[in-house]
Amino acid sequence: MNWNAKYVACGMVALLLGTAALPSFARKKKAKEVKTAVETPQLPANDRKRFDYFFLEAIRQQNAGNLSAAFELLEHARRINPQAAEVYFYESMYYSKMKQDSIALACMEKSVALNPENQTFSERLAQYYIGTQQFDKAIDAYESIYAHNHENTDALRILLQLYQQGNNYEKMLYTLGRIEKEEGESEQLALSKMRIYEMMGDAKSAYTALKTLSDTHPLDMAYKTMLGNWLMQHDRQKEAYKLFTDVLKEEPDNAYAESSLYDYYNATHQEAEARKMLDRILLGNTTPVDTKLVMIRSFIQDNERNGADSTQVLALFDKMLQVPKPSSDIAAMRAAYMSLKEMPKDTINQAFEKVLEIAPDNVEARLQLVQNLWDDKKYDKVIEMTDQAQAYNPDEMVFYYFGGMAHYLKGDDDKTLDTFRKGVAQVNEKSSPELVSDLYMIMGDILNKKGLEKESYAAYDSCLQWKDDNIPALNNYAYYISLKGENLHKAEQMSYKTIKAEPKNGTYLDTYAWILFMEERYHEAKIYMDQAIANMDSTETSNVVLEHAGDIYAMNGLTDEAMKYWKKSYDGGNKTDAMELKLKYKKYIPEEEAEKMTDMYSTERFGVKKKTIKRKTRR
């Protein structure tokens, strides 16, 4: 059990004050030596030993998770020494856990009263006050903590946030001064001071603080630009303009000053100058990509507000991509903008191809392009893109999936297997279980189709190892096992999972009915076969399902109904020897027996065995 959970102040302060997270006291400098704060009567030696035993045993029981025993031992220790601050401290945690907050607080306050020099006790109490929104008491507690150890500036930073909570700006400035005294001047402290003056409405003092920072660091153009932006916000545009241009004289490629000057031109309605500055920023070789992205995003937002003329945006993107060594991030944003504007699919695809031309290892762009091509059934192009991905992103499983599936839908089982085998060779602990499972499932289907039964079953086993509820795989695996008449119990268990997951799926119901039939549970098989037929329309019902229905009805003594199903299956193209024999003799004939009868007839009539047309699988 983590007894510190309720008292962690980071989340509480950040949530309540909306400012920086509470600093960790683990980082503070070493506290001053602890002195005995309260004179307490010395325990007799025997009582001291007894107290130590019960207290230490309580801690041991707590660490072992025996909390009730630990609490009873603490109570016993408290009765021996009612002035032991550490006992009240630990008991406060138990009461807090039991939601007895008032008792928990009383114990915590008692521990601090008995030993105010113990900073751990004081900090925990202060954090508790914050957690219960007793901010005035929290302020007193942290002021006391700082008074005991002036090197503890973390306590001052929490006080700064607490004073902000109460809009006590004078105390905030006073606290900043104490931090500055302990740590020395810094940019962060100067900016914090400026913000406090802003909150106070004291623009003059805020300007002075920021200008002092700028004057103190004359070679740092960031402060001068920051001062210019402050002036812009306070309608002092001419002064701001001078600062921006001064910065650009010193550093012509200063992106921060360029962006600020662009804002100045927009604010003063100098559209032509603003556009020149925008081009300078976006087309500049030294402008950081992040700055370009921010600027183009801002331009798009303005464009949307002013009528959404996409031709202007696209023209700007085109300029940015015509510079030497264009950025793939810019190209990606261009493609994303085209997608957002729902431009023609071919145009969007060309935009993603441009991204890959610049950065062929860009996974997101390639994946989006492959998805678009897939949606349009452009499988040859999908294969081309995913083959390239295997060179640039060999560990991205999704490209093997799309590439293999494209081969699969084109009817090329060998290339599908080859692609999927390359894919599963890249499997690691971070791979998507769903994706890996599907790869193995399709491999199992193809291997079974090729008559490689052992390899097929191994692929299905791997599939279910990655995702044991892969329903299509469970159905196919169960069906193929049932065709062999072996491991029918295993097949039934797998098939049952599929109809539990999708009770209205006619294909899964047919598989389960067929397995029951193979187990000679004919009455149950008919129940599920009736459900299978009811949940399949005429376009879904395959000849094999109709044959299954006929077989099941025949073994239930319903010959006329069986003949109807067999006839439909036969007329639908299922013209196997086995089917012809069933129709001729009006009874169910197992495939093995039908094959023998066919071979015997062929040998007697022609002197050779006639090749039997075996039933096709339906998956």
Features of the shown structure:
single chain, 619 residues, disordered N terminus, mainly alpha
Quick rundown:
With 619 residues, the protein is mainly alpha-helical. The chain has helices spanning 9-17, 45-63, 67-80, 85-97, 101-114, 119-131, 135-148, 153-165, 169-183, 187-200, 203-216, 221-233, 237-250, 255-267, 271-283, 289-305, 310-321, 328-340, 345-358, 363-375, 379-392, 397-409, 413-424, 433-449, 453-466, 471-484, 488-501, 506-518, 522-534, 543-555, 559-571, 577-585, 591-606.
Write the layout of secondary structure elements.
Elements: H1 9-17, H2 45-63, H3 67-80, H4 85-97, H5 101-114, H6 119-131, H7 135-148, H8 153-165, H9 169-183, H10 187-200, H11 203-216, H12 221-233, H13 237-250, H14 255-267, H15 271-283, H16 289-305, H17 310-321, H18 328-340, H19 345-358, H20 363-375, H21 379-392, H22 397-409, H23 413-424, H24 433-449, H25 453-466, H26 471-484, H27 488-501, H28 506-518, H29 522-534, H30 543-555, H31 559-571, H32 577-585, H33 591-606
Helix pairs in contact: 2-3, 3-4, 4-5, 5-6, 6-7, 7-8, 8-9, 9-10, 10-11, 11-12, 12-13, 12-14, 13-14, 14-15, 16-17, 18-19, 19-20, 20-21, 21-22, 22-23, 23-24, 24-25, 24-26, 26-27, 26-28, 27-28, 28-29, 28-30, 29-30, 30-31, 31-32
Description:
The chain has 619 residues and is mainly alpha-helical. It has 33 helices and no strands. α11 packs antiparallel against α12, α19 (345-358) runs antiparallel to α20 and α30 (543-555) packs antiparallel against α31. It starts with 8 loop residues before the first helix and ends in a 13-residue tail after the last helix.
